[in-house]
Amino acid sequence: MQLNVLDTSLNDKVKRLQSELGVTLDPTGETLKCTIDPTLSQSSIQRINNTIELSATDLPTTWYLLKRLANEPDTQSLTVQKNFRQVGMMLDCSRNSVPRVSYLKSLIRQFATMGHTWLMLYMEDVYDVPEQPYFGAYRGRYSHDELRELDAYAADLGIELVPCIQTLAHLNQFMEWEHITSQYGDIDDILNVGRPETLTLIEQMIQSLRQCFKTDKIHIGMDEAYNLGRGTYLDEQGLKPKVEILHSHLENVLQICHKYQFNPIMWDDMFFSKYSKVESENYQIPSGVQLMYWDYYRTDYDEYDQRFKERQAITDDLAFAGGAWRWTGVIPHHSKTLYTTLPALEAAKKYGVKDLLATCWGDEGSETPQDAIRFGAVLYTYLQYHAHYNEEEFDAHLRLYTELSLADWLKQEQADLLPEFSIPASLNANPSKYLLFQDLLMPLFIQYTEELDQLTDYTKHLTQLEHYFATLEAGDPQVNHYYQALVGALKLRWRLPLTLREAYEAKDHQTLSTIANETIPLLNRALDELLDARRDLWLTEAKPQGLEVIEFRIGMLKTRGEGVALRINDYLAGKIDSIEELHEQSYEPLPDQATKGVQTAIYVRQNTMMSRNKISW
After folding, report:
1. Which distant-in-sequence residues (6+ apart) come within 8 Å of 318 by Cβ?
2. Spatial CA neighbour of 68 closest among 89, 88, 46
3. What is the mean pLDDT of residues 435-451?
4. Is the pLDDT of residue 278 over 80?
5. Cβ atoms of 115 and 87 closer than 8 Å
6. N or C: which end of the chain has fewer CB atoms below 10 A?
7. Do 7 and 123 fall into the same domain?
8. How confident is the model over 332-376, as pLDDT tens digits?
9. Interatomic CA distance for residues 14 and 104, integer angstroms
10. pTM above 0.90, yes or no
11. Using CA atoms, how far apart are residues 413 and 335, in angstroms rounded to an integer?
12. Is pLDDT above 70 for 280?
């Protein structure tokens, strides 16, 4: 679609978004007449002769309508109504993968055309605090100039960039410095909130961010500090109820926020978890604090309904954060994003919740590419502008924004969520992670390997997925290559511990020789391809700091494979009488988990997955 944009300011913005919108600027094109009025109850766009008339509540809705009109040939007019005041994403910048400024700008452009109005950057220690040189050191932290650049870029397109930090716990990487722990630590990754120097640190953090962001919003975290006050705080201040400590600390942090003209948002769980539950009649969230209820686990509407009701009893300003699931291992779980988001947002509408986010955590080192979050971003867009979910319409939105169909996106999860699995009961299952990384001689999950082997032809399934991604023309070639390489390596490795053990117990020396001298070298070449694909994609999306962890992990698989081959060949040559590791008894790996077995089990702890011997101290 060719556009003639008379408004100079708007013309510059459209020029920046030409590729994402699917338009070109041309003085002979259709003339765009645009009105932005926040008081409008609806937004609309229509073609009249050679003119496009557009009225919208905000800039992002303007871009949403323009993109729809430009890419839907049969559409001559369109009217939409927002279900929520704000919809956006929260990018995890703290789990080793700090998005590059250039990549973040590309996401901002995409989010703008999706109608997103805010974007949070989750930064535990990855922003510069001048008084704290160890804060984010060697972690790819953002400079003030980078954050200012991103803030201005987002604002120009109508997106409010909001810092999301931690002022109570989750500062584990900062706490890895021993002198920092001794100065600020309570227990685990929790700050000792009884010390004046801790409040000084928090003020330094917030003052630093004030210099970078125009917004009056700041997310101060305060979640999952379940051992609050049980370490050095206990030694110094005595035993106090956790909720009492939390309330006092919150008041102190509020004073700092107000000093720097920030209105705080905080997570809700410390008031409702079994570790520190507060009764609603005993406490109200202070005025001026937005409470953000986070929940991306439930698939039942009634459960969300009950929890929204409980939280509205202690606050009159409630927001909601769901999840775009990319933190179960090496691949995303888009079905879980769907199954948890649909009932959550229905309940949010019932309770009049106005501000929504999709969190995009990167637990365990951001193994899954950042690109995976675009599925959730489009889902939140669709649910912002549609009263009810329709799969065909959502599929059209995915194609519009990503080139990929719903079926294409769901292929990314199918090394975990197999057709034989029961959904939604199996939404957590992540065999691709633990079957890729478990040890060849002492596999923690060999019982699940046997179970999967009996359930389906997993090798055939992975081969089909490998072909699918190798021939997929839509989407990003780098992303497609990663998934192709991943399932290619998994295809060779998933059953290898079982095949090795079977051959050893049967004294099948020919198979053992083949494993040592053919299969393991072939696997290592596949791991090389996987590492190359992940490295290339990582360096497109993120700063290099943190990539070394991915290289360590895949490199360890290769080195261990070479060591296993040596052990096998020593056994075959008679240098050793037995391979002692293969005489270890296998056990149920998750005896205390309510959900166990290959169809429901989830395990993400990298170190214990690879070995039950301690990897680091």
Report:
1. 290, 291, 292, 293, 308, 311, 312, 351, 353
2. 46
3. 97
4. no
5. yes
6. C
7. no
8. 999 999 999 999 999 999 999 999 999 999 999 999 999 999 999
9. 18
10. yes
11. 8
12. no
Asked if 29 and 1 touch (Cβ cutoff 8 Å), the reply is yes
- Indicate if the alpha-carbon torsion angle 140, 145, 151, 154 is positive or negative: negative
Q: Which two tokens stand for residue 578?
A: 């037995």
Domain range for 348 is 86-412
| Average pLDDT estimate for 251-272 | 96
The rounded distance, in Å, linking the Cα atoms of 216 and 262 is 5
pLDDT for the residue numbered 284: 84
- Same-domain pairing of 448 and 299: no
- Same domain as 32, residue 94: no
HEC secondary structure over 555-566 = HHHHHHHHHHHH
Structure letter (DSSP) for residue 114: T
Which whole-number Å values give the CA distances from 259 to 207, 251, 357, in the listed order? Answer: 9, 12, 26
Inside any domain, residue 616: no
CB 432 within 8 A of CB 573: no
Nearest Cα to Cα of residue 496 among 513, 518, 520, 517: 520
Write phi, then psi, for 36 (nearest 5 degrees).
Answer: -115, 120
Query: What's the average model confidence in pLDDT over 1-12?
Result: 94
* DSSP class per residue in 481-515: HHHHHHHHHHHHHTTHHHHHHHHHHTT-HHHHHHI
Out of 385, 412, 439, a domain closes at 412
Q: What CA–CA distances, in Å, run from 425 to 238, 302, 351, 447, 546?
A: 44, 17, 27, 20, 33
pLDDT attached to residue 73: 86
Q: Is the pLDDT of residue 279 over 60?
A: no
Q: Which two tokens stand for residue 399?
A: 């194609």
Same structural domain for residues 191 and 309?
Answer: yes
**Three state DSSP letters for 367-435:** CCCHHHHHHHHHHHHHHHHCCCCCHHHHHHHHHHHHCCCHHHHHHCCCCCCCCCCCCCCCCCCCHHHHH
**By CB neighbour count within 10 A (0-12 exposed, 13-18 middle, 19+ buried), where does 480 fall?**
buried
Instruction: Give residue 48's Cα distance to chain centre.
Output: 43
Per-residue pLDDT at 275 exceeds 60: no
Same domain, 135 and 201: yes
Q: Percent of the chain having pLDDT more than 90? A: 93
For residue 407, pLDDT over 90 is answered with yes
Nearest 5°: phi and psi at 431? -60, -25
Question: Same domain for 257 and 312?
Answer: yes
Q: How many domains does the chain have?
A: 3
Give the pLDDT score at 15.
97
Run of H or E residues at 594? none
Residues whose CB is less than 8 angstroms from the CB of residue 10 and which lie 6 or more positions away in sequence, other chains included? 32, 34
Instruction: Indicate whether 301 and 335 sit together in one domain.
Output: yes
The two tokens of residue 378 are 């489009």
> Which of 412, 445, 479 is the endpoint of a domain?
412
The pLDDT value given to residue 237: 97
242 or 305, higher pLDDT = 305
| C-alpha to C-alpha distance for 324 and 338, rounded to whole angstroms | 9
Is residue 167 within 8 Å of residue 72, measured between CB atoms? no
User: What's the start-to-end Cα distance of the chain, in Å?
Assistant: 60
Rounded Cα–Cα distance for residues 310 and 304 (Å): 10
Alpha-carbon distance values, 39 to 33, 57, 228 (Å)? 18, 7, 44
Beta strands in 134-242 (DSSP E): 160-164, 217-219
